[in-house]
Task: structure prediction
Amino acid sequence: MQPKTAQVSEDSFLVQQCRRGDSAALERLIVKYHSRIHNTILRICTNADDAAELTQETFVKVIENISDFEGRSGFYTWVFRIAVNLTLNYCQRGSRLAFRSLDAENDEENEQAKGALKAVLSSDDLPDPAAVAANKELCQIVLKALEKLDDAQRAVIVLRDIEGMNYAQISQVLEVELGTVKSRLSRARGVLREILGEIVQ
Amino acid sequence: MKEELNIDELLNSFLDGEATERERIEVQRLLTHDAEVAKRMRELEKCRMLVGSLPYAEAPAEIMKGIKTSLGKSPVKAPEAGVFEQRRGARHLLIRQVLSVAAMVVLVAVLGVVIYTILGPEGSRKQPMAADDLKLPAKKIEIRSEGTVQPVVTKADSPSRSASAERGKPIEGAKGVWGGFSCRLQLKTKALTAVDASISRAIEDSGLAQHGLSRRDGGERVYTVAGSRETVNLLLGDLDGIWGKFDSATLFVEAGEAGKRVVVGNVKAGQTAEILKQDNSEARIRVAKDIASFNRIEKQLPGTEMFAAIGYKGDDLITIPKPVLTSGERPITKPAGGTEAEQKVLLTIVVAGSE
Result:
């Protein structure tokens, strides 16, 4: 990943070019961010089709409003704000995520995933991230646990632990105070810990 | 519970590298001394690691296609349109400024002309128009020894010479080009023969006969005499005696320089003499105008018949106040006496009438 300052200056340059009508610069910005935006949206809304649609909608909004972008925040923050707002609005519109109860899928594979998760949680050592990522069943359990969080908590967890934003950036994207980010993240991790604990019991 | 939340926030801040120096020291102290907090810390760290280990979901290719389609339809050129509008506005403003400046220049020029017309030097406004400028044939009187008076077209004779150059040329006796003052006295009478005899005698007595010539044409007699103001005045003095025989007398004064002509109606011999005795052409024109005005007024005044009955001849001229020059420029006055040419007078007397 590029250093933050270099990323910001490159984004600023590309945004300036876009404002002058340079479609190539706009395309470069889209190529640069579209996968990250899609991943973030997918982890918040948890539905692949909706995530694809929301990603496209996000960039359409970016294209429509790039001339109004004043640069008070970074382009990166601005794009994520649009994406997260669209996703949270989508979640609030009642298209509730189709929760599938973990209890309902109490098959053999699920039992194996639970065992893997129990091993991770009971071990004194931290798990190997590559091993976790390779274990699809374990990932599914984690995703299901994420789905059980409310939208705001899930958004803050995704922005911090998946997208890797710092608290200040999360504060700008969600347009909330820094203290709110701290407390919301603390609650979200607490709930997640409880959910995962319940799963392995 | 609240304390637990505060510890969780502290632990999470420490975990995410967002804790302050003081908070970090506090967390390290807690982790060292409190096994429960250390355990909690490990669990939070595992949760964080589990979420962070979720596989990265690459965006489907259709998303990029869809965005590109939207990019093609969307008015990305809006900023450019704004720039175009700005440029067009700037151009419009520039044109307006140029037009304003041009309008101001024209206005100043017009004002300048008006002011110059009002306050400019007298000569610049009343410049006599040369015949060459008007493209009209300039006429001058040439007196020939053969005794015929005829106009001569100067331009035809010598196109290169300007009319102004011809003017003011001195008289060469009764021969050559006339450069002095000229006037014509138009008289009407019912006793043409008697009047003709009287005028011929008067011309002879005044000594102008050798410079003059006469022509008889049916009911019209034409006498042309040229001489000094004194001799012409003598002639007019002689004619004063027969002035009562004239039904009408009109004097045409030629103002040589500018080609002006003043017509003095109902003129008397004394008035004619008064005009001729002036030193220069300008003075003659001015006096001729005064007399013409006076005679017009006198003719319109009631009681003219009464003046005739008491024998008033109107010799005592009423001095009409002259207009005061209001412009800043003083008139250029010629020295008294005038030029030698101006002292010469060419008088043409035309008598028309019957027996």
